[in-house]
């Protein structure tokens, strides 16, 4: 089975993210099929993706997560961004971020700015426990929540300008705060209609 470890977002934050997703609804009209928007009923911050594992592995993972010692903490979500980040040469100047040009956009996301240090500490403890069980370490951890994935390159200048202008407009938008109290081991079943998630284990912090 395909599993990962994540933090679910609060309902209040999901409602706000839905409003922000609507700001990019023009993609559905002008570029049908270009972007796949995340189903917010399952919006989460991935802490570690583990991939395909056996039933025995699941029990070992549960035991490892039971050893996590981090306490509850608050996180704050704010600002829209994108991957891959525009290189320095694409910026007009550091003092004029509104003039940046993105040549490629693959993912549009919302950042986690408040509580990043605590989130990173939690992720590092999860990494240690999972590495002890034989899972490889992540090369890089990014604190963000995906809004949508761009499935087809935005090739025209007009398409890119519309998207980048909207990202700049929302770069400091306040999304909300929540308390991280649970860490979940989730099963992901891929279907033509999108992934179906099931909680296999909940670790109370």
CATH superfamily: Cyclic phosphodiesterase
Query: Low-confidence spans: pLDDT under 50, at least 5 residues?
Result: 88-101
Can you write the helix and strand succession as a string?
EHHEEHEEHEHEEE
Strands across the major sheet, in which order? 2-6-5-4-7
CATH topology: Cyclic Phosphodiesterase, Chain: A
Please give the alpha-carbon distance between the first and last residues: 25 Å
Which structural class fits the helix and strand makeup? Answer: alpha+beta
**In the residues, how many domains can be counted?**
1
Task: Describe the structure in your own words.
With 205 residues, the chain is an alpha+beta fold. It has one domain (2-87, 98-204): Cyclic phosphodiesterase (Cyclic Phosphodiesterase, Chain: A), CATH 3.90.1140. The chain is 29% helix and 34% strand. The chain contains five helices and nine strands, in the order βααββαββαβαβββ. It has a five-stranded antiparallel beta sheet, sandwiched between helices. Strands 3-1-8-9 form a four-stranded antiparallel beta sheet. The longest helix has 17 residues, at 116-132.
Fold topology:
Blueprint: E1 2-8, H1 11-22, H2 26-30, E2 35-37, E3 44-52, H3 55-66, E4 73-83, E5 107-114, H4 116-132, E6 144-150, H5 157-169, E7 174-180, E8 182-189, E9 196-204
Antiparallel strand pairs: 1-3, 1-8, 2-6, 4-5, 4-7, 5-6, 8-9
Could you provide a short overview of the structure?
The protein is an alpha+beta fold and 205 residues long. The chain is built from five helices and nine strands, in the order E-H-H-E-E-H-E-E-H-E-H-E-E-E.
């Amino acid at each position: 089975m395909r599993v990962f470890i994540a933090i679910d977002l609060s309902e209040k934050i999901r409602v706000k993210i839905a409003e922000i997703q609507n700001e990019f609804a023009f993609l559905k009209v002008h570029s049908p099929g270009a972007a796949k928007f995340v189903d917010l009923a399952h919006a989460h911050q991935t802490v570690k993706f583990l991939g395909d594992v056996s039933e025995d592995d699941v029990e070992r993972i549960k035991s490892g997560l039971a050893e996590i010692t981090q306490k509850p903490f608050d996180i704050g979500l704010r600002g829209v961004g994108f991957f891959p980040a525009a290189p320095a040469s694409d910026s007009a100047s550091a003092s004029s971020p509104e003039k940046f040009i993105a040549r490629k956009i693959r993912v549009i996301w919302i950042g986690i700015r408040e509580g990043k240090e605590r989130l990173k500490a939690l992720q590092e403890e999860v990494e240690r426990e999972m590495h002890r069980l034989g899972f490889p370490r992540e090369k890089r951890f990014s604190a963000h929540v995906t809004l949508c994935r761009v499935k087809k390159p935005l090739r025209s200048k007009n398409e890119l300008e519309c998207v980048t202008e909207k990202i700049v407009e929302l770069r400091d938008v306040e999304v909300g705060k929540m308390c991280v109290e649970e860490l979940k081991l989730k099963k992901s079943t891929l279907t033509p209609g999108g992934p179906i998630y099931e909680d296999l284990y909940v670790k109370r912090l």
